[in-house]
Amino acid sequence: MSLDELRLQIDSIDQQLVELLVARSRVTAAIGAYKRERGLALYVPERESELLGARREQARAAGADPDLVEDVLRRVMRGSYASQETSLPAVGDVRTPVVIIGGRGAMGRLMASLFERAGYVVRVIDVDNLDELAAAVTDAGLVVVSVPIDRTAEAIAALPKLPPDCVLCDITSVKQIPLAAMLAAHAGPVVGLHPMFGPDVRSLVKQVIVVCPGRDAQRYDWLLRQLEAWGGLLREESPAAHDQAMQMIQAMRHFTTIAYGVFLSRQPADLEQLLRLSSPIYRLELAMVGRLFAQSPMLYTDIMLQAEHLPELISEYRHALDELLALVRSDDREGLIDRFRNVQGYFGELAPRLLAESAELLRKMHDAQGAKAG
Asked: Of 228, 234, 232, which Cα lies nearest the Cα of 40?
């Protein structure tokens, strides 16, 4: 067969693939409607694992690459979850209003959208209609505080009296101070939430949400079940342990990213040239730096300034940099290798797992980069 004839076969198979994807999307839309009507969870890990396992076995039996089949199916599933989220399942009483304080901010808009898509009555309060707050909360079943970190405690303290059964929660990235403020301001159910994602997510499926218990867990249990029904992965943690972990997960990472951005800007480095010459791993690292600088400077500044021990951590980080700098200046190859091996021991068996996870990300970056080049 000629090359043109072979390409025609590929075109025909691809057309069939598109038709199958369209047919599959119709079925997933029906599944979404079924789940929504019955308040069932969008994401069921056991079902997904079972499906992927079966298709991997089928691929092996047919002589196909199981990893390729899983990669394709995961991408298809991601689209399926997104298509099911036009309308979301409701777990609580949709007739009881949800009040979002700071509802015109990015995260506030996301939270309002989620509850609205599930059919809840949503009332948005922000700086332009603060005078409506007292009336808005009179019959509220949930009040969500979504204001800048530096104003969260003040906003909570200024809350009017809430109904006894109303759940009060915040979604800021620090937890000890807001949780204490909520417990002092409201005698009813209180819980601290920290969504570990930004407002640009398309779906809560597989998104981590940290839960810090406050008071009357039985009465805010419906809210946690609601987040799980939308696909969220809940991780319970004490407020103190949460804030300590966030100093490493967020504050230190944001500081080092900002420092690297400042360094690049002072070289000055030609970013387009750096991107053009970067392999997927280095492009991904630059992308993460650029992602931060595409967002609000106030948000990241507040996250860093609210980290209680950040100055001490930065001093330790600078000490590590100075130590490595001294080794580089003295051309101490063995010293650098020794430090590398020490950190290898620290990561232990986690390192190979992270290597595999990052390889998957890099494959996607490689595909995207090739498509842009084409």
From this structure: 228
Give the distance from CA 153 to its chain's centroid.
24
Residue-averaged pLDDT of the chain:
92
Cβ neighbours of residue 169 under 8 Å, at least 6 residues apart? 142, 143, 144, 145, 182, 190, 191, 192, 193, 220, 223
Amino acid at 205: V
| Matching residue, tokens 């690049």 | 264
Q: How many residues does the chain have?
A: 374
Computed from CA positions of residues 215, 218, 220, 226, in that sequence, does the dihedral angle turn out positive or negative? Answer: positive
Report residue 123: phi and psi, to 5°: -120, 125
Distances (CA, A) of 53 to 26, 47, 107: 23, 10, 36
Phi, psi of 168 (to 5 degrees): -110, 125
Alpha helix (H) ranges present in 119-252? 133-136, 149-157, 176-185, 217-229, 239-246
- In terms of Cβ atoms closer than 10 Å to its own Cβ (0-12, 13-18, 19+), residue 236 is exposed
Indicate the helix (H) or strand (E) that contains 137: none
pLDDT higher than 60, residue 119: yes
Cα-to-chain-centroid distance, residue 244: 19
Is residue 188 pLDDT above 80, yes or no? yes
Per-residue HEC secondary structure of 230-261 comes to CCCEEEECCHHHHHHHHHHHHHHHHHHHHHHH
Query: How is residue 296 written in tokens?
Result: 């609000």
Cβ distance 165 to 219 under 8 Å? yes
Element spanning 363, H or E: helix 350-373
**242 Cα distance to chain centroid:** 16
Rounded Cα distance, 69 and 58, in Å: 9
When comparing pLDDT for 297 and 84, which is higher?
Answer: 297
pTM of the model as a whole: 0.83
The tokens for 291 are: 């992602």
Tokens of 232: 């969220």
Q: Is the pLDDT of residue 27 over 60?
A: yes
To which H or E segment does residue 170 belong?
A: strand 167-170
- Which residue, among 200, 179, 177, has the nearest Cα to 190 in the 3D structure? 179
**Rounded to an integer, what distance in angstroms lies between the CA atom of residue 255 and that of residue 303?**
10
Please give the backbone phi and psi of residue 134, each rounded to the nearest 5 degrees, phi first. -60, -40
Amino acid at 7: R
